[in-house]
Design brief:
Number of helices: 16
Number of strands: 20
Oligomer: single chain
Helix content: 25-40%
Strand order of the largest sheet: 7-6-5-8-9-19
Strand content: 15-25%
């Protein structure tokens, strides 16, 4: 593993430079731990010419790998899985250092889902990509047999974000290799350091099974590096995970060479609660909701961002309805969540850092301020601490009341980039936070709806449509509501992100959330050319 240095990174100076970067600023990618501001070194930017040469190397390796047996591919997948299991603590720690998340978040969101992915591929990839017999049709049925073949495309280009430094690499990598492709991955400038360790381990796994070393490459840098990959004629398909704005740019760049793209552009998932829920069920759901919102500090593509509760105030109810009961349960726990550097004090920290630093924190504060100005109430958090400085301090905001959090001292976030776990209730549907992706530690509970129909209409009134979930005491009611939600994925009486733990299911959305799929049979076949015989 790479060393863990203790010199401090000047985040303020870096952010000031990147507001108007020079060629010198873009020549290397600085790396730092967002939770501690420990400097982690720099990585040279990959030039467009170097990207072209790397893709050419990958293509030569792929020509050999495309002829590999399923026995060899399974051995590679199981070797990667063994590494994930045996070295899971180091994998999680490296992800924490690069992104600022907690060790618990890393184990769940990085290691566990990657193990599921590798296990599913090892057991199912061969069957998913086997020749598939089809009906020949009446005219030639007596003389012909027909089938479909799935052949590897060649070189896959992937541009991945920073929020899951390990899984965002292993996810496209494992599928590409399983389907007989090579892959070149452009990692985020906010999470490049971890690939020094992950890349070395991946190369060791390739060597262990006799696979070509050039099957997997990483490229580093900013927009120019990504553009070089998306416009490279040697790339056969692009997988992009990021924002709608950059996703559109990737599409335009890939259009010149007619390179197909997979776009996963985030979400604003609805979490619907019906008014028949019992107190016991609300206890369970409140815990699920808190885990969903504050997993990786809300920096998730698929995560609950819009809590929509059916609770008609005109109806005769018991003393505390579902809306008040849910808010009360959240209010008991959210103010107690402790923010800090998990690698430093794992048992004393519940929530990690905001990876993208000051610009992201300011954006989160703007969303909160707008919601409050329109009538929302702050239940917990709600005020950004002062700008980070290079000074150690952990377990921030621990156990304080919402009012005390709003009076945080100027140096409260001295250790890194933090925003307090925040809960808003009575949020109006015309607030900015109702439409814009939050991608941060803010639970947004909207003003209650009078009926299931209104809740569904509110949930579907959004450009994003990645995932969704609905809860009701009556499972049939929950399933009916979930079935009406416009989204690429949905869960019934469970957190919407749990669909990702079933790697047999395709992952992707509609509208601003993008198109095409990865994971499952659909994702594997999407990395192949479909050939009719």
């Amino acid at each position: 593993a790479p060393p863990m240095p203790r010199t401090k990174f000047d985040l303020a100076a870096h952010e000031a430079a990147m507001a108007s970067p020079t060629a010198k600023d873009l020549a290397a990618v600085p790396c730092w731990d967002p939770a501690t501001l420990d400097a982690l070194g720099t990585i040279p930017t990959t030039s467009p010419a170097e990207v072209e040469a790397i893709v050419a190397k990958a293509r030569k390796a792929q020509e050999q790998w495309s002829q590999s047996s399923w026995t060899t591919r399974r051995r590679l997948l199981r070797t990667l899985l063994r590494w994930c299991v045996e070295d899971q603590e180091r994998i999680a720690e490296v992800a924490c250092r690069d992104s600022g998340k907690t060790l618990t978040d890393a184990v769940f969101g990085e290691v566990l889902v990657t193990c599921e992915k590798l296990k599913w591929l090892a057991e199912n990839a061969e069957g998913a990509l086997a020749d598939e017999r089809r009906a020949a049709g009446t005219t030639v049925a007596f003389t012909k047999n027909v089938h479909v073949e799935y052949r590897p495309l060649g070189v896959i280009g992937a541009i991945v974000p920073w929020n899951y430094p390990f899984h965002n690499v292993l996810n496209p990598l494992s599928a590409a290799l399983a389907s007989g492709n090579a892959i070149v991955i452009k990692v985020s400038e906010y999470a490049s350091w971890s690939t020094r360790y992950y890349g070395a381990a991946i190369r060791a796994c390739l060597e262990a099974v006799g696979a070509p070393a050039d099957l997997v490459h990483f490229v580093y840098g900013y927009g120019a590096t990504g553009a070089a990959l998306t416009t490279c004629a040697g790339v056969d398909k692009i997988i992009f995970v990021g924002s709608p704005e950059i996703g559109k740019r990737v599409m335009r760049q890939a259009a010149d060479s007619l390179t197909p793209v997979v776009l996963e552009l985030g979400g604003k998932d609805p979490f619907v609660l019906c008014d028949d829920l019992s107190d016991k069920e609300l206890d369970r759901i409140a815990q699920i909701a808190l885990r969903g919102v504050f997993q990786s500090m809300g920096q998730n593509c698929a995560g609950p961002e819009r809590f929509i509760v059916v609770d008609d105030p005109s109806a005769k109810k018991k003393k505390s309805g579902v809306y008040d009961g849910f808010c009360a349960r959240i209010a008991k726990v959210a103010p107690l969540l402790r923010t800090g550097a998990s690698v430093e004090e794992p048992a004393a920290v519940d929530c990690g850092a905001v990876t993208m630093g000051t610009p992201a924190i300011r954006r989160l504060q703007h969303l909160v301020d707008d919601a409050v100005a329109r009538g929302a109430q702050i239940v917990a958090g709600g005020v950004a601490p002062a700008a980070p400085a290079a000074k150690k301090s952990t377990s921030l905001f621990g156990g304080s009341s919402p009012s005390k959090q709003r009076e945080a001292p100027a140096d409260v976030a001295a250790s890194g980039s933090f925003y307090p776990p925040t809960v808003l209730k009575d949020v109006p549907f015309d607030a900015l936070i109702a439409k814009e992706e939050i991608f941060g530690p803010i639970m947004c509970i909207f003003a209650p709806c009078a009926s299931d129909d209104e809740a569904v209409a509110r949930a579907n009134d959004c450009g994003f449509a990645l995932s969704s979930c609905a809860f009701a005491q009556d499972p049939k009611r929950a399933a009916k509501v979930a079935g009406r939600l416009r989204a690429g994925m949905s869960s019934v009486n469970d957190l919407e992100g749990t669909t990702y733990l079933s790697q047999s299911l395709p992952f992707g959305g509609l509208g601003l959330s993008g198109f095409d799929r990865f994971a499952g049979v659909e994702g594997l076949r999407g990395l192949c050319s479909t050939r009719s015989v």
